[in-house]
Amino acid sequence: MNKHTLLLFDLDETLLGSDWFKNGLIQTLGIHSFTKKLDASLFLERKLNVPKSLILPFKKREITPLEFRRARWRHAFSHFDVTPEVELLDELDALFVKTGMSCIEQDPSITHLLFDLTEHYQLGIVTNALYDPRQKIYHMGLSEVFPDETVFDADGLGYRKPDREIYSAALTHFHKTPEETLFIGDSWIHDVAGPIDAGMEAIWINAHNHSPLSDHSPFAIVSDVREIRKLLLPPAILPR
Length: 240
Ligand SMILES: [Mg+2]
What we know:
This protein is of the alpha/beta class. It is built from 11 helices and 6 strands.
């Protein structure tokens, strides 16, 4: 097949879409007495449109993930002229995590793909996810494919993609060289340029036909992660 023996995956928007976030938030707003009467779709729109003034300090680590999560809630609430106490923000966030995680559904085509890949490769996850990736993986029915020690999350490790350290942590765990490793994900900066700069090759999941942001050259470009089957697995033997 090829020289790669380790596949490192991004999680959000690569293996898991964003429906859980949207459905989880809408349901949370409908459950909690403080938010019940708010326009849930408008709130969702505000929550998804995070201003750069919040993202930049988070990326520069000037604010913690917890502070960033609270700031996102505050930003959405500000549209409704509401300024809840921090305890209420944390309560809503906890309810959202519980509700959101229960909205995650197993996707048989993804599950089959990953189980088939485990026959030929070692597999890991490297993620900047804001919400517990291991819980997401559990609800996706993938804990067997990605046991806890194979999940490298920015929140737990203290560095984020495209920091070199987060890729190195994964390689060290698997005792692999960058040359043996293929990174697969939807973010040009985090999943293509970062890994290539760290000596790996990368497959870019480009679902929305974006233009590359630099002159890095990926191993392949696909529009959906399921397409990697034909690139990384031997052709299926059809029953006679
Ligand atoms: Mg992603």
